[in-house]
Amino acid sequence: MPTQTDTNPFPYSDSNKRYHTFDYFTRHKFGGKCAKLPVDGGFTCPNRDGKVGYGGCIYCSERGSGDSCCSASTPIGEQLDAQLAALSRKWQNPLGIAYFQAFTNTYAPLPILREKFEAALGRENIVGLSIATRADCLPPEVCDYLAELAERTFLTVELGLQTIHDSTARFINRGHDFAAFLDGYLRLRSASEKINVCVHLIDGLPGEDAEMMLDSAREVARLKPEQLKLHLLHVIEGTRLCELWRAGAFECLTLDEYADIVVRQLELIPPETVIGRVTGDGLADSLAAPLWSRKKLVVMNTIDKLMFERNTFQGRLTAQNA
Fold first, then answer.
1. Which residues are within 8 A (CB) of 30 and not within 5 positions of it... i.e. 6 or more apart?
2. For 120-164, what is each residue's pLDDT tens digit?
3. In a 3-state reduction of DSSP, which class is residue 60?
4. Residues 6+ apart with CB under 8 A from 38
5. What is the pLDDT of residue 68?
6. Angle between the 110-121 and 76-87 helix axes, to the nearest 10 degrees?
7. Which of 171, 209, 261, 287 is the most interior residue, by most CB within 10 Å?
């Protein structure tokens, strides 16, 4: 009896996954298991310190989405070594990509960026850097340095777009519009062809319906980034978003709604684009809603099941429209 893996029509897969997973990509690129290792480099953000605003994005925790990172007071090398040691207990000779995750990781003077990134590159078994930032924090000298890094390692720059809709961006206190995102994206592209770009989208933002979220995916598909991350909106205790949710200002997506939107978005994304994630990780002790998202495997399996039932795959509509 043929299995789902045997009948999977998606070319960039050796499992039942009908989208281009990060695991598939890294195994083929590096020849073995490779994990992203979250790092807190001690940065801040321009919409927290007053450059473009205060308080940060309304969904962002006090640690700037770096809740899974070690303390920023721990040297970067030690942060990475501890994670690689933990991985070595379940994988043989694990490889790691240093993931500068917390806050905005190009928002500092160039000498500080060099100090942080070079400290990560100098660790054993680190095969790449992934740098999370904002498109409005990419001045020319930083882009030049990123181009230099891309000559020496596998470099990914992760840009938080979240939505193409400027009205939503204003509501969530993003601090820049879609035009500013495009400007930063194109600046990276001009700096070096070797810089991999990963775009982030959030599904379930207040005021957005399914068609608006699909519009965001369509625009990202046109840009053809090397990677895309699809996040579920998490309501975290202590955030402005949580205050709005408790006041009944918006409702979170259900699991079925979220799975349907993700599947429809994946159909629009070129098959070569690596999907870094199809949901997010909210820490259990600070997550207010949606509580179903705590069961990450259930979320991923629901998406897989829906793609199988619909006999669809990443890029299906892209291929039809080519």
1. 95, 127
2. 998 889 999 999 999 999 999 999 999 999 999 999 999 999 999
3. coil
4. 66, 68, 69, 70, 83, 99, 101, 102
5. 58
6. 30
7. 261
Per-residue pLDDT reduced to its tens digit, 181-226: 999 999 999 999 999 999 999 999 999 999 999 999 999 999 999 9
Other C-beta atoms within 10 Å of 293: how many?
A: 24
228-241: pLDDT as tens digits: 999 999 999 999 99
CATH of 22-313, one of 1.20.1050.10, 3.30.70.890, 3.20.20.70, 3.30.2320.30: 3.20.20.70
Residue 248: CB partners within 8 Å, gap ≥ 6?
none
Q: Which amino acid is at 301?
A: N
pTM equals 0.94
Computed from CA positions of residues 233, 235, 240, 243, in that sequence, does the dihedral angle turn out positive or negative?
positive
For the chain, the domains span 22-313
Can you spell out the DSSP letters for 2-56? --TTTT---SS-SSS--S-BHHHHHHHHHSS-EEEEEE------TTTSSSS-SS-
